[in-house]
From TrEMBL:
<dbReference type="GO" id="GO:0009062">
    <property type="term" value="P:fatty acid catabolic process"/>
</dbReference>
<keyword id="KW-0276">Fatty acid metabolism</keyword>
<protein>
    <recommendedName>
        <fullName>Peroxisomal 2,4-dienoyl-CoA reductase [(3E)-enoyl-CoA-producing]</fullName>
        <ecNumber>1.3.1.124</ecNumber>
    </recommendedName>
</protein>
<dbReference type="InterPro" id="IPR036291">
    <property type="entry name" value="NAD(P)-bd_dom_sf"/>
</dbReference>
<keyword id="KW-0560">Oxidoreductase</keyword>
<dbReference type="InterPro" id="IPR002347">
    <property type="entry name" value="SDR_fam"/>
</dbReference>
<keyword id="KW-0521">NADP</keyword>
<dbReference type="Pfam" id="PF13561">
    <property type="entry name" value="adh_short_C2"/>
</dbReference>
<comment type="subunit">
    <text>Monomer, dimer and oligomer.</text>
</comment>
<keyword id="KW-0576">Peroxisome</keyword>
<dbReference type="InterPro" id="IPR045017">
    <property type="entry name" value="DECR2-like"/>
</dbReference>
<keyword id="KW-0443">Lipid metabolism</keyword>
<comment type="similarity">
    <text>Belongs to the short-chain dehydrogenases/reductases (SDR) family. 2,4-dienoyl-CoA reductase subfamily.</text>
</comment>
<dbReference type="GO" id="GO:0005778">
    <property type="term" value="C:peroxisomal membrane"/>
</dbReference>
<dbReference type="GO" id="GO:0008670">
    <property type="term" value="F:2,4-dienoyl-CoA reductase (NADPH) activity"/>
</dbReference>
């Protein structure tokens, strides 16, 4: 008897999948438009690809326009849908307003907002500067609020829509070296619920996906994922492995689409059960608990 491996395909380069098997209808997002922050790399890029394969046009928006231009070409080539790359810094409301105006000019609508952009690094609280803590809060939490508010006021308020925030389970039990990111994501989980309540009557759903360690991304590398994997750290996760980007994109697709039409204010935990059981302490894992270095 072969034990079933709960490992769905994630076959491809770091950029786009080379093969894909549908688990939802290919028309699930037909002719909708999604605005995805941080859509030029990692989990955001895979979300853009999977949404486009389901009939959606996308805007991918972040700081590095060269990276976005290259990603947009690849995304359009694999999906046959339109992808508009736009330069924003989620800390700068004016840049978001200009990008949403451009989106409405190009596509005439926006149906889905994915707040995926974030910044993170490992750093002990004592070594973390005041500005470093503020920077992560500014990107992760204020950035999520800024983008949600602009998209709501310019379109969702009158037409409805779906917001998907990308959170993390890292703060659920507390973790060394992560007070900045854990605090930011906890605030985002609260924001998800508050905005779900306030915007529900306008036909706007607000939900979140909370990943655990997800391989093949900058975040995974920065947080010591490959070292953790080599040290057998993921054996304490019930599903005994890191997740992959396609799995996160499928969660975002569910929450963004009519498949979850009666779901709002929900946080979909997608971490292989990690936070329930794991000794999820990076400092122990990486042997750097007593490090005084600000730049790990
Ligand atoms: C992955 C898991 C691996 C192993 C786990 C094993 C077992 C655990 C089992 C279960 C655990 C379950 C769940 C947890 C799993 C996953 C982790 C969860 C979350 C992951 C989140 C992310 O991945 S976020 C995306 C990551 N990508 C990026 O960060 C890219 C974008 N980043 C940036 O742009 C920069 O890094 C930035 C965030 C610093 C912002 O840049 P910028 O605006 O240019 O700011 P700066 O001017 O450069 O800096 C501002 C201040 O910050 C200080 N700083 C910068 N870098 C560092 C650092 N590395 N350390 C300390 N301080 C830093 C800088 O000095 C500035 O402060 P000053 O006081 O000097 O002004
Ligand atoms: N990988 C993992 O293990 C986990 C990831 N997550 C979450 O998943 C999401 C994606 O992370 P991941 O794919 O790993 O990492 P990436 O570094 O690939 O993605 C982060 C993205 O955010 C963009 N970004 C960063 N700062 C800004 C800014 N100020 N304005 C606009 N865009 C910005 C970056 O683009 P650019 O540099 O061009 O601005 C980049 O595309 C994040 O929310 C992260 O917290 C949660 C748990 C675990």
């Amino acid at each position: 008897v072969t034990r079933q491996k709960l490992l769905p395909e994630d076959v491809g380069t770091d950029d786009c999948l080379t093969s894909y098997t549908y688990i939802y209808s290919p028309d699930l997002l037909k002719d909708q438009v999604a605005f995805i922050t941080g859509g030029g790399s990692g989990i955001g890029l895979r979300i853009a690809e999977i949404f486009m394969r389901h009939g959606c046009d996308t805007v991918i928006a972040s700081r590095n326009l060269d990276k976005l231009n290259e990603a947009a070409k690849k995304l359009s080539a694999v999906s046959g849908r339109r992808c508009l790359p736009l330069c924003i810094d989620v800390r700068q409301p004016d840049s978001i307003m200009a990008a949403v105006d451009e989106t409405l000019k190009e596509f005439g609508r926006v149906d889905i907002l994915v707040n995926n952009a974030a910044g993170n690094f490992l750093c002990p609280a004592t070594a973390l500067s005041f500005n470093a803590f503020k920077t992560v809060l500014d990107i992760d939490t204020l950035g999520t609020f800024n983008t949600s508010k602009v998209v709501y006021e310019k379109w969702f308020k009158d037409h409805g829509g779906s917001v998907v925030n990308i959170s993390a389970t890292l703060g659920y039990r507390g973790q060394a070296l992560q007070v900045h990111a854990g605090s930011a994501k906890a605030a985002n989980d609260a924001m998800t619920k508050h905005l779900a309540v306030e915007w529900g009557p306008s036909g706007v759903r607000v939900n979140a996906v909370a990943p655990g360690p997800i391989s093949g991304t900058e975040g995974y590398r920065r947080l010591g994922g490959p070292r953790g994997e080599a040290a057998g750290a993921f054996q304490s996760i019930p599903l005994q492995r890191a997740g992959n980007k396609t799995e996160m994109a499928h969660c975002a697709l569910f929450l963004a689409s009519r498949a979850s039409s009666y779901t709002t204010g929900a946080i979909l935990v997608a971490d292989g059960g990690a936070w329930l059981t794991s000794a999820n302490d990076f400092s122990m894992l990486l042997g750097i608990a007593s490090s005084k270095s600000a730049k790990l």
